[in-house]
């Protein structure tokens, strides 16, 4: 199973905001931290804000931050929100679908995949992102480090 870039970027934004929970972050800052397009992140951030995963503060000194506690953000629920569908193959247009046992097997596999994700929260993932020496995976932005 392959998740879309939208889901990947959604998780990245949430991880970044979780790691920097004491302050507002900008989309540009998140994009720079990951080396990805700011334009791509704007759509992701809008979707996450509409769903309540993040809060957006407008105006001078504004930015984005988590809208929920990391332990209240379930990874499985997030993936279901960000992905459009989980059909691994198009069984609906297959002539042998009514007699094929593969459809049920694939449905079971997707269910198992989502069940594993349901067992984790953003807080669980954040706990795993620390390096062995205790440093965060994200460098402190220069504006924050100097201020």
UniProtKB/TrEMBL annotation:
Organism the protein comes from: Sphingobium quisquiliarum P25
Name of this protein: Rrf2 family transcriptional regulator
InterPro entries attached to this UniProt entry: TR_Rrf2-type_CS, Tscrpt_reg_Rrf2, WH-like_DNA-bd_sf, WH_DNA-bd_sf
Entry's Gene Ontology cellular component terms: cytosol
Pfam families: Rrf2
Keywords in alphabetical order: DNA-binding
Molecular function terms, GO-annotated: DNA binding; DNA-binding transcription factor activity
UniProt KW Transmembrane keyword: no
The organism's place on the tree of life at top rank: Bacteria
